Amino acid sequence: DAKTTQPTSMDCAEGRAANLPCNHSTISGNEYVYWYRQIHSQGPQYIIHGLKNNETNEMASLIITEDRKSSTLILPHATLRDTAVYYCIVSRNYGGSQGNLIFGKGTKLSVKP
Amino acid sequence: DAGITQSPRHKVTETGTPVTLRCHQTENHRYMYWYRQDPGHGLRLIHYSYGVKDTDKGEVSDGYSVSRSKTEDFLLTLESATSSQTSVYFCAIKSGANEKLFFGSGTQLSVL
């Protein structure tokens, strides 16, 4: 699976949009982009994933560039409860047990009042 | 939380003692996983299961064994705990045909 690069940390003002970037320049055609987050001392939480089209759900939006070499996770109105480590992961859909998501160091997002 | 319960939530034990952690799920998912999380290493896969009595090793399986005698329970055993196994252990299930994982709340294990 392709490697990803994320900033170590970011700050965001409460109520503003948080835009978290991720570079995955070696992504291959059958690999998806997944985003998870981990709030302090809790288990990781799935946020969203996509292949090449932009995706939106109740938690966030995922914007993938046309060449698929980078993506941005957008939290439209960040709250203090969004303070967490955000992981960008690239993976094939193994469709079975072989999948092993590689959680790197992620981006620590701090939402400030 | 996808019906995942980990027990115990916290455990302190001594080096050389056996320890078993339990992951229980209520939604009949086929695939279950055990991860450990350590500062500087992120999350690493220990073992996984793709059905009753079907298990396989992950990235850091040495010193651990698992069992899955029924769909709802996936047990992780440290046969003889060592201080290097002090960690936070997370169980996860896979939902659907993609890599969408749901994690339990974790078990904080301290081996003294």
Topology:
The complex is a heterodimer of chains A (113) and B (112).
Chain A: E1 9-13, E2 18-23, E3 31-38, E4 45-50, E5 55-56, E6 61-64, E7 70-75, E8 84-92, E9 107-112
Parallel strand pairs in A: 1-9
Antiparallel strand pairs in A: 2-7, 3-4, 3-8, 5-6, 6-7, 8-9
Chain B: E1 4-7, E2 10-13, E3 19-25, E4 32-38, E5 42-51, E6 54-57, E7 64-70, E8 73-78, E9 87-94, E10 101-103, E11 107-111
Parallel strand pairs in B: 2-11
Antiparallel strand pairs in B: 1-3, 3-8, 4-5, 4-9, 5-6, 7-8, 9-10, 9-11
Task: Walk me through this protein's architecture.
The complex is a heterodimer of chains A (113) and B (112). Chain A has 113 residues and is mainly β. Chain A is built from no helices and nine strands. Chain A has strands spanning 9-13, 18-23, 31-38, 45-50, 55-56, 61-64, 70-75, 84-92, 107-112. In chain A, 32% of the residues are buried. Chain B is mostly beta strands and 112 residues long. Chain B is globular. Classes of the chains: A mainly beta (113), B mainly beta (112). Chain A binds chain B through residues 32, 34, 36, 41-46, 49, 89, 91, 93-97, 99-101, 103-106, and chain B through 31, 42-43, 45, 48-50, 56, 58-59, 88, 90, 92, 94, 97-106.
List its traits.
heterodimer, A: 113 residues, mainly beta, 5-stranded mixed beta sheet, 4-stranded antiparallel beta sheet, 0% helix, B: 112 residues, 7-stranded mixed beta sheet, 58% strand, globular
Strand elements of chain B, count: 11
Mean pLDDT of chain A: 91
Q: What is the distance, rounded to the nearest whole angstrom, between the alpha carbons of the first and last residues of chain A?
A: 38 Å
In what range is the share of β-strand residues of chain A?
over 45%
The largest sheet of chain B, given as strand count, sense and whether it forms a barrel, is: 7 strands, mixed
- Give the rounded overall mean pLDDT of chain B: 92
Rg of chain A, please? 13 Å
Q: Roughly what fraction of the amino acids of chain B lie in strands?
A: over 45%
Largest two-chain interface: A-B, 24 and 24 residues
Shape of chain B: globular
Largest sheet of chain A: 5 strands, mixed
Please identify the structural class of chain B as seen in this structure: mainly beta
Helicity of chain A, in percent? under 10%
Helix-and-strand structural type of chain A: mainly beta
Q: Helices and strands of chain B, in N-to-C order?
A: EEEEEEEEEEE
How many beta-strand elements of chain A? 9
